Amino acid sequence: MWTSILIAIAVLLALAVIFGGLLGFAAERFRVEGNPLVDQIDALLPQTQCGQCGYPGCRPYAESIALGGAINKCPPGGEATIKALADLLDVDPEPLDAEHGVEQARRVAVIREDECIGCTKCIQACPVDAILGAAKHMHTVIESECTGCDLCVEPCPVDCIDMVTIEPDIRSWTWNPPAPHIIATDRQEAHA
Amino acid sequence: MTKLWDFHGGIHPPENKQQSTSRPIRNAGIPELLVLPLQQHIGQPAETCVTVGDRVLKGQRIADVRDGLGVPVHAPTSGTVESIARLPVPHPSGMDDWCITLRPDGKDEWIDRQPITDYRQQDRQNILAVIRNAGIAGLGGAGFPTDIKLRPPKDRKVSTLILNGAECEPYITADDMTMRERATEILDGLKVMAWILRPERCVIAIEDNKPEALAAMQTAAAGTQTEVVAIPTKYPSGGEKQLVQILTGLEVPHGGIPADIGVMCQNVGTAVAVGRAIFRGEPLISRVVTITGEAVTGPGNFDTLLGTPVDYLLTAAGLQPDRLDRLVLGGPMMGYTLPSPDVPVVKTSNCIIAASVSELPAPPPEQPCIRCGMCADACPMELLPQQLLWHSRAGEFEKAEHLNLFDCIECGACSYVCPSSIPLVQYYRFAKGEIRIQRAEQLKSDRARERFEARQARLEREQEEKEARRKERARAAAEAQAQARKKAEAVETPAQAGEADADRAAKAALVQQALARKKAKAAQDSVAPVEPAGPARPAAEAPDIEALEKQLEQARGKLDTMQSMLDDARAAGADNVEKLERAVAKNHDRVQRAGQALEEARKALQAAD
User: Fold this and answer.
1) CB nearest to A176's CB, from B430, B446, B562
2) In sequence order, which residues have a C-beta less than 8 Å from that of residue B105 and are 6 or more positions away?
């Protein structure tokens, strides 16, 4: 009887050693550098790099979310981003935290070029290098690269930067969803 | 007899074509004003190459696309450019776009035309350039630039060239009448295109509900190798992918083009335009437009100059305004309602339906889906319309995309057969639009991230370089010092000892001076914190004063910066002195305002105390 108990223990021990080794090897061999969740969260953020969330850029905010931080601090992303984050993290979506700002239509910075004195302060402030210019020469915003983050407005000593809302035009237009259900009698009234 | 295949689904809506085929193609004439949108097709909008007040000749290029996908726009008649402005254009959004307005002078004076009769002697690239410069974009509806389409990918050989004369959508008869009356011109264009592509087979496909057109094309094509094929009437057999399937039995792969399976479709109207561009040297300045519907007394087809206002055409066809309920541009299946008749005819406008109330009644209200499956039976692309509807409605666009939403050709067959009158296609169009927006935003945010990261890396690198330079300098200095010391030690003599003492004394004096400076600075610093301590007390009580103070300080800071910049500029005699002066004045104002606000706030606070 003792022998069978000993055999059982020996077998279990051997199995434990083999599987432990396997798992250890796999953990080394297939190790993922960094936290993949941060990348996933970062991909959902709008990348304006505006710092309205209180973090210096979108990635630091993504890192804070990955550590369990609030998901409602991003005004440029708005409800859509909160919903996407809630889906990804499987938590309940919360309304946008007004402390960090309100959701606005997409905007773009425009420099009033005849007032620009060429101080390069906005160029240094732009997180995505979307402002072009040199010292004592006029600066201008590359519209297609501007994320509308607002960060260039404050440093300007002559206040010549405006944030302009992008109006929908014929090329960015898309179809609206069909009107909600109405019943036949409603429609006749509406026609009359 | 050509072997034909069938495609899945399809419907047989009432054709309503006889109204507009009883009269020959009429010339619409020259209206008082022509409005030419700078973008009339897929691709980039053209840039104007005329200015307001210029006199232009018929066929003169007035706008062109410099780079990117697109073709030029030409003046449809001689006249003067009256304006370049944003005007309503035919678009489902009803929005405005940039247009050139031309006031015809009635002389209809042609620019110098250069017909090519011996195109076979020329280089194919030259002929393609002629087609591009003639401004030809597909006249069937989508309006893809024809010269680009005629350049299939290098690794794809087009073995079958199809001329699409199916015209399966109800009401539209523009291609039908073109085939009846301009069969030889179509053949001319086909010859040129066939010469460019060198296919093994040329097919002209016509639905069997157009016997006159079939007869005319057969007569014209007699003696050539071109096949004229009657295909069974079924909507949407004129869809490119469906027509390819009918004639070859092959399916265009997902996300691909017909050239991927060695086939190319061209519209018969496009063939006419190509023929005219080569043999007459005429650019695309007119097209055949069907005007039909119960609200016009003389429905028919009009040879219309591009840019002709829709209401001019309606008047020519005898519009009865009291009967008009809805204006539809395009066919009843795939067209859209025009909000106003003040829009021009463009290269892609094939039909205008002036419908009465009874003719195209407003759709009945949408009812819940009963899962009958009729839409799936009707779908020519063999999609799952019900599933697409659920996902589009719920905003689950990813799932809709996964079910090949982008293979939907928006033919409207599903909406047509739906017993619950669900506007399925509208949901699909909406979903497609949302997906495109999301993709564009994703692209933009990815680019922003890339740029941000590149900037961070650059800043870091610069910092490191600075640090390295600093270390380098420090090292060099230390070395120099060490060497100097060595030298001094090596040549040290008692005679120089006195000198060294003097050196030491001088150094000590310097150190003393530095210490004194430091002390003075420390004294200043210890005074400085007292200053803000004064206003700090009320600030603790009233945070708005703190904010105001900050503002004032900021304004002062900015003013100082500006002042110093101005001084520099004056000293250097720079040309931006004036601007700087203005900026300084502005900042003066700001400091004053901030100071006043602070003063007032303080007074108010004192009064409150």
Assistant:
1) B430
2) B55, B78, B79, B80
Say whether B433 and A184 touch across the interface (CB within 8 A).
no
Cis bond leading into B236, ω under 30°? yes
Residue pLDDT, tens place only, B546-595: 778 888 888 888 888 788 888 887 887 767 777 788 888 888 888 888 88
> Cβ contact (<8 Å) for A145 and B451?
yes
Collect all residues of chain B within an 8 Å Cβ-Cβ radius of residue A47: 444-446, 448-449, 452
Q: Retrieve residue B389's tokens.
A: 């509807």
Give the burial string for B97-127 (b: 16+ CB within 10 Å, else e): bbbbbbebeeeeeebeeeebeebeeeeeeeb
- Closest-CA residue to B283 (of B66, B71, B96, B5): B71
**Distance (Å, whole) CA B65 – CA B209:** 40
Flag whether A152 is in a domain. Answer: yes
* Domain boundaries along the sequence of chain B: 18-355, 369-478, 541-608
Domain with A133, as residue range(s), is: 105-167
Instruction: Give the global pTM.
Output: 0.78
User: Residue A31 has which token pair?
Assistant: 């190790």
Helix (H, G, I), strand (E, B) or coil at B588: helix
Q: What is the DSSP letter of A131?
A: E
Extract the tokens encoding A10: 């020996």
Say if the Cβ atoms of B446 and A47 lie within 8 Å. yes
Locate the chain B residue with the closest alpha carbon to A76: B445
Query: How far, in Å, CA of B344 to CA of B245, rounded?
Result: 35
First to last CA, chain A: 97
ipTM: 0.81
Q: Do A128 and B366 touch (CB under 8 A)?
A: no
User: Taking CB atoms and an 8 Å cut-off, how many pairs form between chains A and B?
Assistant: 101
Mean pLDDT, chain A, rounded, equals 87
* pLDDT tens by residue, A34-81: 778 888 899 889 888 888 888 988 989 999 999 888 898 899 888 888
Which domain-ending residue is among A100, A130, A153? A100
Give yes or no: residues A96 and A118 share one domain. no
- Chain A: closest CA distance from residue B563 (Å): 11
- Select the residue of A58, A170, A174 nearest B433 (Cβ to Cβ): A174
Give the CA dihedral B365, A181, B327, B335, nearest 10 degrees: -100
Is A180 part of any domain?
no
Q: How far is B586 from chain A (nearest CA, A)?
A: 7
Strand partners, A90: none
pLDDT, residue B594, reads 83
In terms of Cβ atoms closer than 10 Å to its own Cβ (0-12, 13-18, 19+), residue B37 is buried
Establish if A58 touches chain B: CB-CB under 8 angstroms.
Answer: yes
Residue A117 in contact with partner chain B when CB distance is under 8 A: yes
Nearest to A173 among B93, B366, B432 (CB): B93
pLDDT band per the 50, 70, 90 thresholds, residue B540: very low
Q: Which CATH class is domain B18-355?
A: alpha beta
Alpha carbon distance A37, B356 (integer Å): 59
Yes or no: say if B150 and B131 are a contact pair by the CB < 8 Å rule.
Answer: yes
CA distance B145 to B131: 9
- The length of chain B, given as a count of residues: 609
Which residues in chain A are closer than 8 Å to B433, comparing Cβ atoms?
174-175
In this structure, whether the domain defined by B369-478 belongs to CATH 1.10.1060 is answered with yes
